[in-house]
Amino acid sequence: xxxxxxxxxxxxxxxxxxGSLPGAGAADFEQPVATADHNWEGxxxxxxxxAGGVGVDFDGIGSKNKLxxxxxxxxxxxxxxxxxxAGSWLFGLEGxxxxxxxxxxxxxxxxxxxxxxxDWLGTLQLRGGYTFDNLLLYGTAGLAVxxxxxxxxxxxxxxxxxxxxxxxxxxxxxxxxxxxxRAEGLAYTFSDEATLNGVKKKFDFGDxxxxxxxxxxx
Length: 218
Prior knowledge:
single chain, mainly beta, 8-stranded antiparallel barrel, 2 helices
């Protein structure tokens, strides 16, 4: 899935979600009415908008504690999951697909000018938290998958889908019986080895994102 396809998936999910509501329109969002004791259990889907930074760090290259290649920008994501509730405790399973759109180059000692690219990022994660009526505070952790492409001006390429970890914390507010809004911070980590300019180097690929989202419970 490329960058444009990721965006199309996100917009399509958002349009379908809003269109599923009878008579959905601007007035539906002007005066949401949340119940004092929101029912969090059930299936939900939505969209998110994030902003953050992406970095690639090669072992033994560049300055200590400084990323060798850095990029930043905005991303769109599709979100879907299911919540289980036990009293005030919530447990759930959630999947996401997000655009990344990384395309950055840097001159690195011994490796030439290295270009890093990544188009999409997906996750399957567990959520757990505590509800205070219409407010949920939660933590999340799980599997993350992304595409990473590296190439050097002096020769050598790396092009693989990598599996890694995602960790995060967030809060979610019920705007009505069906609509919720969230804000969360997420960190993604991946690692592998690439041979560039005839040199095999271990590298870490990371992504840190602050994301806000709107979801609808079905």
